[in-house]
Design a protein that fits this description.
The protein is of the alpha+beta class. Helix content is 41%, strand content 18%. The model has no long low-confidence stretch (mean pLDDT 89).
Length: 842
Amino acid sequence: MATQLTEFIRKEVLAPRLKKQGCLVVYDSGGRYKELCRSLSSDSVRLVDATESSIESRDAAIQALADLGNPKTKLEGLIVYVPANKPLTDEQKQADPFSIYAECGGVFPEDDGDEFVNLCLKAKPDFATEIRRIFAENPSPSFGIIDAVGAGAQWPQLRATLKVDSARDILFALMAPTEAQVQALKSQEGWASEARELLRSTLSMSVKTRAKTLTALSDELWRFVLFSEFVFDLPEPLPESLAGVPRAADEARPLIEHLCDELRFRHRTKDLYIEKAQAIENDLRLPELCKSIQDFGKKDTFPFEEQTFLRQAIHGLVSGDSDQTRQLLTRQEFSVWRNRGDSQERWTVIRAALELIEKCDDLDRQLPAHLSNQGSLLDFYVTNLRETDRCQREFEQALGDFVDATGLLDSVIRQARRRYRDLAEKVQVVFTRQLEAFGWPPPGRLANSNVFDRFVAGVLKDRGQKTAYFMIDALRYELGVTLHKLIADDGPVELHAAYAQLPTVTPVGMASLLPSAQSDLSLEMIGDVLVPTLAGIPMPTIVQRMDFLRKRFGDRFAEMTLRDFVRKKINMPDTVDLLILRSTEIDSTLENNPEISLGLIPKTLKDVRVALHKLRELGYRHAVIATDHGFFLNAQAEAGDVCAKPQGKWINVHDRMMLGDGVGDSNNFMFSAEKLGVRGTFQKAAGPRSMAPYSAGYLYFHGGISLQEAVVPVLVVRLEKEVPEDRNRFELILSYKQGAKRITTLLPVFEISLRSKSLFEQHASVEILLEAQDSKGNVVGEPRPGGEVNPATRTLTLVPGAGRPVVFRMDPDFRGKFSVKALNPNTLATYAQLALETDYTE
């Protein structure tokens, strides 16, 4: 039997509020609740009715308030019934003699939830559609009309069979039943007619199918519910060709939207929603029939709508309406369609482009305040301006090997690249002007040629003081900042800005990291090759540089590549105090294949982190991470975007600097070699005033002097003993498509979630490295950068709670079995893994 509305309001609203507050003022201009208030009156609850006389009522209320809680009167509650609207403003409250009692206790109505229509909806949630229809026709229906709603229609068989109580839960079960519910419905008869009545009552849906099977009914219900949400959210008129498709009445909108949200975002039903929405979109030919619609509202019920939102985001970015793009990006984070790999790639590019453009705009506005001298510009770069380099790198990483066959993102890519290039060129013009006034390296600042003597030599004065010296090729300053953030939680680390030896090429830069380089480094021509020498000893190759250190430190010295140190078992002699760890991957891969090699940067940073952990285990307590030079990503270069060489007799150094003698011009700076800190047999040094090389086609370059090429990081790390990680404090869960064991796309989407095992660590975060590895441990797939995945490290940080979808890009040449692994980025210990295999359609 349906709950009587009066009983619901009395027991669920007024009585609890009165019990909690002791005093309750009921404002009721229409007299709807007067009898209800009288029913609450008793020996322990006094009713003061202000209907007849406000003066007498005030006296009675004052006396009742005095009696309230008095042991002699045994009065526990006071209701003041006022047949008027509730005062809202301070002036109205001052004029109302009973507002003081509301301040002392409680008031009804308190907020929108106490409106009559909302009380009716709370009393009979299963009949929300019918109740809204009644109020649409009659704004003030009687209690009897509401009590009559749903009388005798409680769907007992559906409740019992599906083991749910509310109409909402029954509808959900008819659309997405569990296996147990499917079997229960198959074993019962007669439920179909009850379901038809339920759909008519709750959704105003007239079932068309004559079949009595769950599949037929469910398919029709899916179409009805999803198409109804689509129409409710559509700001424009529905095309005439779709006008006859059945949909819910306006009163059912809250229930429709509730069902769609539940189906989209429950873990169990999300994939089913995607499957059904795609099928319904195709059956109704929505993309074709709705192609003239420009505005689809805010919800993307169907996948084709998400593409329209993508176009709106692109338009906002290109037209300068960044607020529109940002709002769409925020909305897309909660879209069910973000789990599609190709869609996620496009949104990631747009997000990275927006961040790059906005960062350039913001720092461009700040730039004029930092142009007075070289020191001011350098300080601005190392504290703020280098963020544009990070954003540009992350944008290019987001592009990666992404192929936009439609050309939809071409305008976004052009705009983002152009904006970065414009700012870089503006800064470069000022920077080269300042070179003439201040020279290089900047006076009073850390020269890269002094790094060994300042940070390493002192540690090596005494035997047994072990230090590791990382020589990482092309670790530009913004990457050093990123690395600093990554390792700062593991122990004390200092980040210093250093200023590279010119020209910024690997042989020169690596030689400058050796002992006494600040005083002994010189550049000489040996044959037709430019060679760095240290105290007259040629140092052009790794072998010669390592031999130099070996002769100086003897058995206290050892060296190897960073990758070998990380991957191999190390038996380090006790005599070794200076361990050199070398890495050339960033520079060599970007030199040879810059368009797709940015993805290798995370591997180097990962290796550094793992190496630091391994050094701790080996007893090292000090490490210095240094580099030879930075680099500039020239992806925005256009045809003919080169600098003309100056006239004269020059040696071309890596296409960004020339040494020799000649005549200056407007395209090139030209200073004495000594002014730029270049010692040797050369009189002058010249280079482009712009961010262009001397030859076309370079997407990545270094060799010259720009902030990106010549400002480099030095990290000094104190390797304290690690506290063992408590693996029992959390659990990681990896999943793919509700337990599927095969991937059918090169862009699979995996879901990862973190569950804390401690009530005291519900907000603690864990950084995770995700990789797809074959049986030999080779990486055959990695997360796409952007969004929650750090582009520089390919890691993501999780907090306990809902799962996160992560788009992987698999190696297109790999076929077979593999495992997706969640790893500790410092130790590479496995937190969780998922065994899968490929099943691509050839």
